[in-house]
Amino acid sequence: MSILEVMMAADELCLQEMIDYAQDYLLLYKPVVLWNHLIKWGTSRASISKDLSNWSSKEYEILSEKIEKSISHIRFLHISSGDFYKRVKPFAQCLPPDLFEDILQYHLVPGHQPSSDLIQPKRATIDSVIIERKHAALLASWIDGKDELVQNKRDCLDNPYEFKLLLRGTRDGFTGTDFHQRCDSKSSTITIMKVSNTGELIGGFTPINWSSRNDWGFTHESFIFHLGEKNV
After folding, report:
1. What is the model's pTM?
2. Largest CB tally within 10 Å, which of 15, 56, 213, 219?
3. Which residues form the TLDc domain (predicted)?
């Protein structure tokens, strides 16, 4: 059972405690996924219809009261414009007007600087000898499924993910055994290699746990990449 499934079963007091306790873990999830689960949790707890076409202002008000304490944990700036339009905008009445207007301008007005309430804690330190903050910011954009426009808007310091070094080949070894000893049971990992002759950076991301067992995992979120000068 995932942390999101546990949260779905929590009452209002327990939900807030769990969010406070598991903030770093929740960073593994895309913000739009957290938003969808928060809305699902709120509507189920409020016992209101899932069909928005039947809602009046009363339903929006009830849902707003249910989710208001958890809204600050949603990284709205890292939700794509498409997901914002499809997933967040329909619930605009559940958000504080100033907050919704700020998010809307961020997506529609080039160069708009969001308020400090929307800026999430920055995770700027990268313990790596082959990638820099600009690479980490680009990788974070790809993990979030951002398009090129949003990638260019993201500041190198404004990264929602914490990059924690699990293995460094020159320090820990390059064998498969070395890799699995340090990476097994770890999820949401990025593997990066530097080509010795060209200096190119290649690698891949997977949200699935690594395992030494002879089996397969399935996901639509994995990707491989090449980092060249055009990317950064």
Report:
1. 0.52
2. 15
3. 129-232
